[in-house]
Amino acid sequence: MPTRSLTDLVERLRSEQRLHDEVPGFDPKNGNELARYLFVLEAPGPQAIKTGSISFDNPDRTAANFRA
Question: Structure pTM?
Answer without folding.
Answer: 0.69
